[in-house]
Structures are given as structure tokens and as C-alpha cells.
Design a protein that fits this description.
Number of strands: 14
Strand order of the largest sheet: 3-4-2-1-5-6-7
Helix content: 25-40%
Radius of gyration: 18 Å
Largest sheet: 7 strands, mixed
CATH superfamily of the largest domain: Succinyl-CoA synthetase domains
CATH topology of the largest domain: Rossmann fold
CATH class of the largest domain: Alpha Beta
């Protein structure tokens, strides 16, 4: 079992014929992901990378049964692409685009609430279920199949954690890069909940960063859930100066509760195994699963 994407997912690429869409769609197809086509307005009826191109997402849903979309649309048009996908009936919308204006995301976030869909991102590396589907920009060779789920705000730390877990002789069920923007579709709590509820996932790695309340919300949910599945947690940004945006637009400390130290304290109090260095993630996962 997996969460969000698997070998049966029918994936389309929005922004299919652009340079980013082309490059990453090629990698996804090479990995074995079931890419059934793509969308570039004005280029419908053409073929690209051996797959059909559609003018709209609705056409892709009607003609090839698409149920997952990955978005490589430029920032100015990406929120519209998210809303179009939801409106067309796409169930999982994975948005890679970085730099979408916050006002646009507020509108898109509000709009898609009325649809039965899950948004991952924006500004995220995507989702991978090893050996089944890579819907994103992560290096597929790092990920091996297993029973550890990963939730991360950071793209590079997603790959780092996966690499360490694999080096310990373990593997990954699904890794979800939720993105580091102030407004994202799937929160840390929601992603953790999906993995805790997945029967094949026996341990979850939760990687957060300074700023916001997402990790605290996830930790409190975990404590209240009474789940016996262990979570290994790490918070990036311990040495960041207070009040400074660091890398991700969402990584800004607003008060005493969203520093790395405060988050780690809450996580420990909720029963999460917190490591102080990302270099310790793999070893800690092996230890708690022993």
C-alpha cells in the first residue's frame, strides 16, 4: 500500500512542453511512472515524449482518465493551473512551482476546498512511492522500497533522509515533500496522518523547519492519536537569526513558539524521537524500529 500515488495512478503534466516540464516528465517516464499525457494550452492534439498533449485538464481527464497532476507552470499562472486541475476532477495535485504570489495561493487554496482533492505544495519536490511512481523532481535512485514514510518541508532533506534510511538496510513506503511556502495544500499533520494510517508504514520521519505551527500541530495530533508507530523528527534552522526569512518563504520565526528549540521541545513532549542533526536520522530510525 502507498499514499497519494502508486503504479495505478494516471499522471498528467501541466506545463508539459516547457523546459522544466519536459525534463522532469522524461525522468518520471524513465523511472516507470505512469504518465498518460500532458497539458499545454494551444498545443492540444500534438504528441510530446510519446504522450498526447491536451489543451485543458478536463480533456485529459475525459480522454485518458487522468487522476493525478504535476504542475510545472510559471508562477504567474500556477494558481490558475491548480484551480483548473481541481475543477476537472483531478484527485491529487502536486505543485512544484516556486514563487507563486501569496495572494494567488490564498485564492486557489480557498477555491479547491469544495472539491474532493489533495493539493501537495507548492514549492515542493513532489511525492514518490519507490518502485511505483515518482511524481516530482527527486532523484529516484536514492529511494528504495520499504516501510518508512517521510514527510518533509525541505526537498534536499527529503533525499538525505531517504538515503540514510536506505543505507541502514531499510526502505521507504512513500515520501511526501510538502513544500516550504507560507500557504501549502497538505500540512505536516495531514501528511503524517496519512502515513500513520497506512498499514505498510511502520515508522515515520518528520522533517520540519523554523517558522509556523505545522510541526507542533502534527506532534499534538500524534500524541492524541495514541499511535504506537514511532516518529523520528528533525527541525532545520536552529542557528537562524530570529525574524529572518531563511530559504523558504515559510521559514520565518514569528515568536518564541516557532523557533527550532521550541518545536523540538513540543515534539519530544508528544513522544517523537527528535534528532539534533540530520546526520542522525537513519541511525535513529533503525534504533526505534529494532
Amino acid at each position: 500500500m502507498s499514499v497519494l500515488v502508486n503504479k495505478d495512478s494516471k499522471i498528467i503534466v501541466q506545463g508539459f512542453t516547457g523546459s522544466e516540464g519536459t525534463f522532469h516528465a522524461e525522468q518520471m517516464i524513465e523511472y516507470g511512472t505512469n504518465v498518460v499525457g500532458g497539458v499545454t494550452p494551444g498545443k492540444g492534439g500534438q504528441e510530446h515524449l510519446g504522450k498526447p498533449v491536451f489543451n485543458t485538464v478536463a480533456e485529459a481527464v475525459a480522454e485518458v482518465g487522468a487522476d493525478v497532476s504535476i504542475i510545472f507552470v510559471p508562477p504567474a499562472f500556477a494558481a490558475d493551473a491548480i484551480m483548473e486541475a481541481a475543477n476537472a476532477g483531478i484527485k491529487v495535485i502536486i505543485t512544484i512551482t516556486e514563487g507563486i504570489p501569496v495572494a494567488d495561493m490564498v485564492k486557489a487554496y480557498d477555491y479547491i476546498k469544495k472539491f474532493d482533492c489533495v493539493l501537495v505544495g507548492p514549492n515542493c519536490p513532489g511525492v514518490i512511492t519507490p518502485g511505483e511512481a515518482k511524481v516530482g523532481i527527486m532523484p529516484g535512485f536514492v529511494f528504495k522500497k520499504g516501510n518508512v514514510g517521510i514527510v518533509s518541508k525541505s526537498g534536499t532533506l527529503t533525499y538525505e533522509a531517504a538515503d540514510q534510511v536506505v543505507r541502514q538496510g531499510l526502505g521507504i513506503t512513500t515520501a511526501i515533500g510538502i513544500g516550504g511556502d507560507p500557504i501549502i495544500g497538505t500540512t505536516t499533520k495531514q501528511a503524517v496522518e496519512m502515513l500513520i494510517n497506512d498499514p505498510e508504514t511502520e515508522c515515520v520521519v518528520m522533517i520540519g523547519e523554523i517558522g509556523g505551527q505545522l510541526e507542533a500541530d502534527a506532534a499534538n495530533w500524534y500524541k492524541e492519536s495514541g499511535s504506537k508507530k514511532p516518529i523520528v523528527g528533525f527541525i532545520a534552522g536552529e542557528t537562524a537569526p530570529a525574524g529572518r526569512t531563511m530559504g523558504h518563504a515559510g521559514a520565518i520565526v514569528g515568536g518564541s513558539d516557532d523557533t527550532a528549540q521550541a518545536k523540538k521541545k513540543i515534539m519530544r513532549e508528544c513522544g517523537i524521537h527528535v534528532v539534533d542533526s540530520p546526520a542522525d536520522i537513519g541511525r535513529k530510525v533503525k534504533e526505534v524500529m529494532a
